[in-house]
């Protein structure tokens, strides 16, 4: 069983992944490390200041079972479950500002969270195996909920469509 842990940048993927590894003993793979280590990119995007990932090459990587694949592209991979972390857009904006993101990058990710971009992409690929966790609050609680999903516990509680951030559209 492989689980994708995805979400808009700033939703807590890295923090929660560390907790899943340290506190729950799950094996977590940072996709950004895999991309860099294996050269699964085709260049550099000057506008976004990031690597242009070769999704096809990443998709062909031989990931073993029993992993949590962490990264905002993980929902594009062949996995058994997808957990999409969701964060209140005001909290997300503050987190991204704290991380030093540019105003344009903050706006892009703020809008992506409001419009459910990652969730919609995940549903297009994985349909009935997508789950949502609100990571606005305490990371330890979010990590516990993600762990429950990896264990197949109470999956109906995490059905997609629970979070509607469209009220923030006027702030975008």
Polypeptide structure, described:
- The protein is an alpha/beta fold.
- It has a single domain (3-166), classed as P-loop containing nucleotide triphosphate hydrolases (Rossmann fold, 3-Layer(aba) Sandwich), CATH 3.40.50.
- 40% of the residues lie in helices and 19% in strands.
- It is built from seven helices and seven strands.
- It has helices at 13-24, 31-38, 55-59, 89-98, 103-114, 117-126, 139-150; strands at 3-7, 27-30, 41-45, 50-53, 67-70, 81-86, 130-134.
- The strands form two sheets. The chain has a five-stranded parallel β-sheet with strand order 2-5-1-6-7, sandwiched between helices.
- The longest helix has 12 residues, at 13-24.
- The protein is globular, with a radius of gyration of 15 Å.
- The chain starts with a strand and ends in a 22-residue tail after the last helix.
- The relative contact order is 0.21.
- The mean pLDDT is 94.
Indicate the topology.
Blueprint: E1 3-7, H1 13-24, E2 27-30, H2 31-38, E3 41-45, E4 50-53, H3 55-59, E5 67-70, E6 81-86, H4 89-98, H5 103-114, H6 117-126, E7 130-134, H7 139-150
Parallel strand pairs: 1-5, 1-6, 2-5, 6-7
Antiparallel strand pairs: 3-4
Helix pairs in contact: 1-7, 4-5
Which stretches of 5+ consecutive residues score pLDDT under 50?
none
The biggest beta sheet, please? Answer: 5 strands, parallel
**Topology pattern, helix = H, strand = E:** EHEHEEHEEHHHEH
> Total strand count, please?
7
Mean pLDDT across the residues is 94
Q: Going by CATH, what is the homologous superfamily?
A: P-loop containing nucleotide triphosphate hydrolases
Helix share of residues?
40-55%
Under the CATH scheme, which architecture would be assigned? 3-Layer(aba) Sandwich
Number of domains in the coordinates? Answer: 1
Q: Termini distance? A: 38 Å
Which term fits the overall shape? globular
Assess the beta-strand content as a share of residues.
Answer: 15-25%
